[in-house]
Amino acid sequence: MSQLSKNEQLLLSQSSTAIPIPKIALGSSTHRSEIRHDSPSNKPVAISQFKFNTSDARIFTQAASTGADIEQIIEEEENKREMGEKVEVIENMEENVREAYIRDEEKALDESIQDEERRRAESELPVLDKVLNNESGAPLSLYNFYAYLREVWQAEDNLNAWLDIITHEKAFKRWVETEKKKKSDPTSSNLTSRRSPPSSPLYRESYSGAPSVVSEDSASHAIVSVTTDEDQSVIHSDRLSGVSSERSTELRVTEDSLKKSAKEVYRKYASLNIFPEENKKTMHDLIERQGRYNPVVFATSKAYVYHIMSVVYFPKFIQSAVETNLTAIHAIIALPLGIVALTGGISLILFYIFQGSESRSVRLWGFIPIWCGWMLLQIAATRFAPPLVLLKLSEHKLFRFHRIKEKGILKAHRKKAMQLLVCDTLVAIFNIALLMAIPPMALYEQTKQS
Please, are residues 239 and 159 in contact by the beta-carbon 8 Å criterion? Predict the structure, then answer.
């Protein structure tokens, strides 16, 4: 028998009765044992012979120092552990449910976007890529989209950011191609003396940015901001001029101008709080700290801005172009004009009624002002003028019209114009029918006879 330590002898001598050692889930022992002093058949067993872990030793030390029941302490520990396990299970379930919910939401969003694009394709309406590529016509051109974002949502910075990133990508791609030509043709070094050497870190970075989709159309790209810096104006020349020679622009694109362009894009739009905080931190680390100016550093921010425009703004832009062809000011002006025309038409018919005219057909003269009055009221309510559809025009600013070039928009406008004209005509006919049913009343002659 091994020699017992003083602490073990003290623990064994506290009671002549059996000290139960219940099933201990915390340790490696899974059996129930007893240590007895008064039974000759049971020899005292040293506690050190049991294999306990650190938690079990803490329990016995606490019981020896406080005199508490070991079973009660172990039960409390087991309850705490079970509660912790339940909380962990619940947290895992919540996390799984949250992830499943996010996946379902993303899937539903992607499906809705695909359905919307499919519906637009069927209705001959352009998608966002076509508008950003400046391949769509009025009233769905890039200029119209920019004007809509600026006037309705004050969110033109999203489009500006996307165009600036695309312009930086184009400049970087052109610079890489020029460096490749320079490396393959040493005789061109005299023409490209302003460029950085092909062994620069910027050139060694792989170009994996999305292909540029910005058109060289000067009218559409004059809507964006321009920096006064010489190198910046060179890089952003794609957005401001479509007539400059591509070769002359290539000669002016340098590594320094690309670095300045990347910093300008980051600093400008990071201060406008367009990008999420994580994206801004990533761009700050890549551009300011690591010195990377490859367009890849803007890939996440570019995708984020594109997603915002495609989900939030572009569907409403399409809806606005389909449902309206008039500015809000003209719609407000149409309201009092409609009231005056409607009142004038009804007053004219009432004049014939109270004049005592036996011919009721003369009352039909009131149909035209009544019909015009209802049409003007409809224009004020819907901001849609059917007469403009006949001329294939749409108003984008006050007294400034452009001819509709998108077949899908023209088709939708014609359909809506026919529906509104039919409604206005039916309402006017109903008013005329009611007024025609009133018998003539010669109020003037009765007053004269009396």
Answer: no
- DSSP string across 186-207: GGGGTTTTTSPPTTSHHHHS--
Q: In the prediction, which pLDDT does 101 show?
A: 66
Maximum alpha-carbon separation in the chain: 144
Domain parsing of the chain, residue ranges: 1-122, 128-320, 328-449
Q: Could you give the CA distance from residue 78 to residue 167 in angstroms, rounded to a whole number?
A: 64
Comparing CA positions, the residue from 121, 141, 145 lying closest to residue 310 is 145
Higher per-residue confidence, 250 vs 71: 71
Q: What are the tens digits of pLDDT across the range 78-116?
A: 878 888 887 777 777 767 776 776 777 667 767 766 776
Comparing CA positions, the residue from 266, 260, 265, 264 lying closest to residue 285 is: 266
What is the DSSP annotation of 129-164? HHHHTT---TTSSHHHHHHHIIIIIS-HHHHHHHHH
Count the Cβ atoms, other than its own, within 10 Å of residue 240.
Answer: 15
Give the 3-state secondary structure of residue 69.
coil
Angle, alpha carbons 321-324-328 (nearest 5°) = 120
Element (H, E) at 32: none
Residues making up the chain, counted from first to last: 450
User: How many angstroms separate the CA atoms of 319 and 152, rounded?
Assistant: 13
Q: State the Cα–Cα distance between residues 432 and 212, nearest whole angstrom.
A: 60
Tell how strand 19-21 and strand 33-35 pair up: antiparallel
C-beta separation of 60 from 11 below 8 A: yes
pLDDT digits (tens, 9 = 90+) for 361-407: 899 999 999 999 999 999 999 999 999 999 999 999 889 999 999 99
Token readout for 356 is: 């005592």
